[in-house]
Amino acid sequence: MFADRAKILIRSGKGGDGHVSFRRELYVPNGGPDGGDGGRGGDVIFEVDEGLNTLQDFRHRRKFAAKDGEPGGKRRCHGKDAEDIVLRVPEGTVIKEAESGKVIADMSGENRRQVVLKGGKGGLGNQHFATATMQIPKYAQPGQPSQELWVQLELKVIADVGLIGFPNVGKSTFLSRVTNARPKIANYHFTTLNPNLGVVDLSDGRGFVIADIPGLIEGASEGMGLGHEFLRHIERTRLMIHVVDAAGTEGRDPVEDVYKINKELSAYNPEIAARPQVIAANKTDAIYAEGEDPVKRL
Ligand SMILES: Nc1nc2c(ncn2[C@@H]2O[C@H](COP(=O)(O)OP(=O)(O)OP(=O)(O)O)[C@@H](O)[C@H]2O)c(=O)[nH]1
Ligand SMILES: [Mg+2]
User: Which domains does the chain possess?
Assistant: First the structure.
């Protein structure tokens, strides 16, 4: 299945604590404070990887934590900074705060790399806290805490072609015949609940991607059926193949079907409705019409 959503837990590293120590040398009785600073905790960074098309990597692993900074040491030793972690996502991934749905980052266009959680700063060692009146500071600063967050990753399907149409008209069947995809096909509505992607291989080496989108129904633009959820997936396709049950096996008129689906498209986003569309008359083997040939009417 084509993964286009994933919920993951990310955590930045805690800053290392500052250290409390005093110089101890032979013949130096009251050495001053020499506790070093803690290192910085790792950031959590998201980066676009051109080679990725799906969020599949985030299905198997859900927790991603950067390491903590190391604490400071004696003799002004600075704790080591932790390495950042870089999570690679496909272009077009939107990162949202899972609880509120607030968009944190949109990894598209110019935005190739974004720090989403900052690691904690390291605390200062006691060497910094000596004053004229306090020459033996027994205090050092703790490192800043880490941050933890559940985030929702969302990827709009990036396909060249989108298959649209009423439920059960044969969109998935079409996809399975012209691409390498093996979607579920069954004789009931809403068999497809998530978009399936398939690649069409052309002999000259160029291929293109077709997305099979769950069936649309009247009112989809207002959220009926799975409504917006479905329409969201075609936003980035360049053209659509509009599959129609030409035989009207469920009692609907195929020409009316085309108008109804297009009405939903324009209500959702007129820009999508204006994109090129190929009408594919399907189930022609089941046509038993006496009147005008429905394929001709289409
Ligand atoms: N007779 C006939 N049946 C077909 C044809 N294409 C698909 N079917 C059947 O129609 C039913 C629905 O096919 P699907 O490909 O699952 O339809 P879908 O449009 O993806 O359906 P949803 O995912 O529910 O929207 C299945 O039982 C298919 O075998 C065709 O050309 N002729
Ligand atoms: Mg289907």
Answer: 1-155 (2.70.210.12), 161-297 (3.40.50.300)
